[in-house]
Amino acid sequence: MLQGKTALVTGSTSGIGLGIAKALAQQGANIVLNGFGDHAGPEAEIAALGAKVAYHGADMSQPAEIEAMVKFAQDTFGSVDILVNNAGIQHVARVENFPVERWDAIIAINLSSAFHASRAVLPAMQKANWGRIINVASVHGLVGSAEKSAYVAAKHGIVGLTKVTALENATSGVTCNAICPGWVLTPLVQKQVDAKAAALNLSNADATKLLLGEKEPSLQFTTPEELGELAVFFCSAAGNNIRGVAWNMDGGWAAQ
Ligand code: NAD
């Protein structure tokens, strides 16, 4: 379905980004990976699916590096047809204790990076009259939780950015939508399970149960594979007129 198209997925060396990159690769898209840590392993996983793959290590808090990454993707594969703004970090603390440096980093990586990557890819998408921008927001783009001020602010912000980007391109073949996951068991969330286990002297299994039970009626994690399939759907012809939605895949979290 996506043969000849190129997808740039930020923060795709791990977790949800890697899951989405693999789902797009399975549809035949060329993939540009980004993120910290080991990238040889993820590159091999994508190549094993028969897709062409490249990697750029841009730090998503740095606008100039984001611009260089988009140019690298365009030079390597000829275009960026699908942009998945996924890179993200978390920090948990009450507002009065929230480190200013963590606030700035979360706003830069979870929100501003999507603006910088989108503004870099949009002109070529508009010229081609086809494009997909998928912003990985969160259920925290729709509702709040205590001790996550920067994250919730950034995710509400990216839902707003999604709507405006969709509206500005509404008469074209370029769409923009957001995906809003509930809990997904990735390194980002395992850290929160570990913190709960340590604070309450619980086993990993009990801390996990408590984490899910507090928020997610289904009591189960959404998987990167399920989120990948939603991204594929947004890229399909069925997604041609889906514009500016914030689609939660959250086990009923926001339905309460
Ligand atoms: P993760 O920690 O597994 O992956 C994050 C990715 O972003 C990694 O590849 C990491 O290297 C990369 N990254 C972090 N800082 C970066 C930077 N400055 N520059 C470039 N890359 C950077 O986390 P995840 O859970 O897969 O999160 C991915 C996205 O999904 C985030 O935007 C997160 O907010 C969102 N999300 C996660 C959950 C969840 O439950 N895990 C729920 C809702 C939304």
How do the strands and helices of this protein lay out in sequence?
Blueprint: E1 6-9, H1 15-26, E2 30-34, H2 40-47, E3 53-56, H3 63-77, E4 82-85, H4 100-128, E5 131-136, H5 149-168, E6 174-181, H6 187-200, H7 204-215, H8 224-235, E7 246-249
Parallel strand pairs: 1-2, 1-4, 2-3, 4-5, 5-6, 6-7
This protein binds nicotinamide-adenine-dinucleotide.
Residues 11-17, 34-37, 59-61, 86-89, 109-110, 136, 138, 181, 183-184, 186-189 line the site of nicotinamide-adenine-dinucleotide.
Structural summary, described in words:
By secondary structure, this protein is α/β, with parallel strands linked by helices. The chain has two domains: 211 residues, 3-Layer(aba) Sandwich (Rossmann fold); 37 residues. Helix content is 48%, strand content 14%. It contains eight helices and seven strands, in the order βαβαβαβαβαβαααβ. The protein has a seven-stranded parallel sheet, sandwiched between helices. Strand 2, helix 2 and strand 3 form a beta-alpha-beta unit. The radius of gyration is 18 Å and the shape is globular. The model has no long low-confidence stretch (mean pLDDT 97). Bound molecules: nicotinamide-adenine-dinucleotide (NAD). The site of nicotinamide-adenine-dinucleotide has 29 residues, from helix 1, helix 4 and helix 6.
List keywords for this structure.
single chain, 256 residues, alpha/beta, Rossmann fold, 2 domains, seven-stranded parallel beta sheet, 7 strands, binds nicotinamide-adenine-dinucleotide
